[in-house]
Each structure stands twice: as C-alpha cells, then as structure tokens.
Design goal:
Largest sheet: none
Helix content: over 70%
Shape: rod-shaped
Structural class: mainly alpha
Mean pLDDT: 84
Number of domains: 1
Number of strands: 0
C-alpha cells in the first residue's frame, strides 16, 4: 500500500518542450542577407557614437538655419537635430532596457527551474520516508491470533 503517488503537473512536460531556444536564422539567402544587414545597421545606429556623429552632422547646418530666421531654426531643431540625434539615443536606451528585460526573464526561468528541482527533491525525500514508514508499519503488524476455543 502506497501512502502517496506523485502525479506531476501537466505543465512540467510542456515547459520542458518550450525551454528558451536560440534564435533561428532565416531560411533563404535573401532573408539571411536582409537580417544580417538590418542587424548590423541597427547595431551601428543604436550607439552613442552614432548619436555624437549625427549631432555633428546636424550642427553643420545650424548656422544656415539661424540666418534663415525663427521658422527655419525651429524646423532645424525639430526635423534635423531631434529626429537625427534622438533616434540613436532612443535605440541605445531600448538596447539597455531590452538587455535588462532579457536578464530578468532568464533569471525568472532559472528560478522556476530551481524551484521545480527542489520540489522534485522534496518528492524523493517524502517517497523515501514513506518507504521507511511502510516498513515500520509492516514490521509491527502481527498476524491475527486465533481466539480461545469455545
């Protein structure tokens, strides 16, 4: 007689199948090229060095915008400086936030793995205790003695 029989939660098998996997490369040569080119451009534009370079490029046209008047200066600020420089700065911020989110997600996954491992170890411990208890119960049970003859 078993005291307890462990029945794993159905999600455990599903979780094993859906463990984090590395990114899969695109299939066709054109798709691979486009992915690689897009990734390289994004990596390059999403740096503070690129933001500094864009700022320098934008400042080249600043004197002309100042001489053209208030409207041209406002247009230069909005359309040239802010859009050109902030693009790279925003990408840098997104990269930093994305890396932090990836780290948190990975830590959460590893925490779940550790909790599952510990729960399975507790299950093994309880199973071992059940076996010892069952042996003790079996050893203290005595066969039924016949009663006095009538």
């Amino acid at each position: 007689m078993k005291i307890y029989e462990h029945k794993p939660h159905p999600h455990i098998e599903l979780r094993k199948k859906r463990a984090p996997k590395p990114k899969k490369a695109p299939e066709s040569p054109v798709a691979r090229f486009n992915s690689l080119l897009g990734e390289k451009i994004t990596e390059g534009v999403g740096t503070m060095w690129c933001a500094y370079a864009f700022a320098l490029i934008a400042f080249i046209s600043l004197p002309e915008a100042i001489h053209a008047g208030t409207s041209a200066l406002i247009s230069w600020i909005a359309q040239t400086f802010l859009q050109l420089v902030l693009l790279s700065i925003i990408m840098v911020g997104q990269k930093v936030e994305g890396a932090a989110a990836d780290t948190r997600a990975d830590d959460t996954y590893k925490d779940a793995e550790a909790i599952l491992y510990e729960a399975l170890e507790i299950q093994k411990h309880l199973q071992a205790q059940d076996e010892v208890l069952q042996k003790l119960i079996d050893s203290h049970q005595t066969p039924a003695r016949p009663g006095p003859a009538a």
